[in-house]
Amino acid sequence: MGSLALRGVRKAYGPVVALEGLDLELRVGEVVGLVGQNGSGKSTLLKILSGLASPDRGEILLDGEPILLDSAAAAARYGIGMVHQEQSLIPNLTVAENIFLDKAHASKRFGLYNWPALNRAARLQLQKLGVDIPTNKRVEDLRFSARQQVEFAKVLAIEEMVDRPPLILFDEPTSLLTPDEIQALFAQINRLRARASIVFVSHRLEEVLEISDRVVVLTDGRKVAERTKQSIDREELYELMVGRQRVDPSIQHRDRHVTGAAPLLEVDRLASEPHFHGISFKIGRGEILGIAGVLGSGAEELCRALFGAIKPDAGTIAFNGGASGPGSPRAAVQLGIGYLPSDRRSEGMLPGRSITENAVITYGGQYGWKSWLLSRRKEREAAQRWIRRLKVKMDKEGAPISSLSGGNQQKVILAKWLLGRNLRLLLLDHPSRGLDPGARDDLFEVVREQVDKGLSVIFVADTIAELLELSDRIIVMRDGEVTAEFNPALGALPREEDIVAAMV
Ligand SMILES: Nc1ncnc2c1ncn2[C@@H]1O[C@H](COP(=O)(O)OP(=O)(O)OP(=O)(O)O)[C@@H](O)[C@H]1O
């Protein structure tokens, strides 16, 4: 049995202290759940453990001996590997190549692959997970969940390289998986548990409590609680993290009323092959339409089409009484349509620019151009109001957006849309992905408040619980078609299993 320990670890980025005085023990046979608000230091800790960042102070001990983790290769030599949230696979290489990509493997001679040996070795890795994926298939041709298993197998291949039990780090591994796929992942983690130490980072507290033996809570870079799974429940964990009690959202839902039936948007037999076809629905002013669908259901592309980013092949979009929907994102913005994409990093932000610049980028100029200084000041003040309201954790507004933690970047991108004075329809594609549970509740509160003032929202949900919590109406999509429609605003809350049945 071995153990890895952090002692007094500190890490700062300029004036921002990301981790302070952190002591943590990771033992073989144990899953440690790591939770904390956005910006509390979780990613920084994972980076330190995987050799991607070095602590400023403190030490890392392996079986009591100090070790230096100054690169990913050094971490791999000690048996440490990370299953990344955004997968690290190379799409046009085969499964086998990806599994052994960064490892010197015996199946490579004189720079050339011995393909049979490589495929055999890859099959062995996949067998450890109990999965059967063709090892000569290119990764781009696999479903997302299969790609994640390859990612997992790639990390597990570290096991053969070292003579000690591995430490496997999972960074929000479930956010793109279906409930069944999550259970399959948990079964694999359970199988692995006996011969590895595992760190599981997630904002989904139920899942953390299900899979972890011990839960560690970080606040502002410090460990504020460490509990065994038996000694804590979801509510207490939420309170420890967020610093307040959770309000039951179902009560808020009952209090909401749909403000008007006049349709703001009418979609009729809309199609964009191969993504979706025959999609028809209406959404009224002040209404929240939730869309359920797994990856590949077409829900994401539908949002893009409503924002004018994908041209439909057939059907019509009538917005606000107009005959046609937006022909381009620019036209969408002018019509009062906002869109929070699920891939915020590549589509939603300008990484080199400051937090404020990112917030005002879309609606710059909405206070007029006459008095330039006055308008800019109003713009900034409006941005600052939203940034405060959404509790963006930052050093200063002039800092680059890329210096924020993932969840806080997301809040800024959301603020960018909320700034729009003529915003009528907001398309939210997985808005809570990456947000901590408190931030997620704050976001939903903001959405409800804006909807009460007449904003309409289309929202592709991360989980069914969220869908039920926020939506007035729900449509379910599968393989590009609407397979079911539910109407919780009329009082009948659909059953979770009915929604799932229409999804998969
Ligand atoms: N490269 C960087 N430059 C400046 N500050 C940084 C940098 N990376 C992280 N930080 C800061 O360190 C703190 C911790 O960030 P970290 O990404 O570890 O948080 P997190 O808990 O993973 O958040 P999230 O849940 O949003 O992913 C934050 O205040 C963040 O702004």
If you had to describe this structure to a student in words, what would you say it looks like?
It comes from Lichenicoccus roseus. One of its GO terms (molecular function) is ATP binding. InterPro entries: AAA+_ATPase, ABC_carbohydrate_import_ATPase, ABC_transporter-like_ATP-bd, ABC_transporter-like_CS, P-loop_NTPase. The protein has about 500 residues and is an alpha/beta fold. It folds into three domains: about 5-240, P-loop containing nucleotide triphosphate hydrolases (Rossmann fold), CATH 3.40.50.300; about 250-335 and about 425-504, P-loop containing nucleotide triphosphate hydrolases (Rossmann fold, 3-Layer(aba) Sandwich); about 350-420, no CATH class. About 35% of the residues lie in helices and about 25% in strands. The protein has 19 helices and 21 strands. The protein has helices spanning about 40-50, 70-75, 95-100, 115-130, 145-155, 160, 180-195, 205-210, 235-240, 250-255, 300-305, 330-335, 345-350, 355-360, 370-390, 405-420, 435-450, 465-470, 495-504, and strands at about 5-15, 15-25, 30-35, 55-60, 65, 80-85, 110, 110-115, 165-170, 195-200, 215-220, 220-230, 265-270, 275-285, 290, 315-320, 335-340, 425-430, 455-460, 475-480, 480-485. The radius of gyration is 24 Å and the shape is globular. The structure holds adenosine-5'-triphosphate.
What quaternary form is this? single chain
Report the CATH architecture of the largest domain.
Answer: 3-Layer(aba) Sandwich
Range of strand content: 15-25%
Mean pLDDT: 86
**How many strand units?**
21
Largest sheet: 6 strands, mixed
- Cα separation of the termini: 42 Å
What class do helices, strands and sheet pairing give?
Answer: alpha/beta
**According to CATH, what is the class of the largest domain?**
Alpha Beta
Output the strand order for the largest sheet.
6-9-10-3-11-12
Count of the domains: 3
Morphology: globular
Ranges where pLDDT stays below 50 over 5 or more residues in a row are none
Cofactors and ligands? adenosine-5'-triphosphate
GO molecular function: ATP binding; ATP hydrolysis activity
Pfam family, one: ABC_tran
Protein name: Sugar ABC transporter ATP-binding protein
InterPro entries: AAA+_ATPase (IPR003593), ABC_carbohydrate_import_ATPase (IPR050107), ABC_transporter-like_ATP-bd (IPR003439), ABC_transporter-like_CS (IPR017871), P-loop_NTPase (IPR027417)
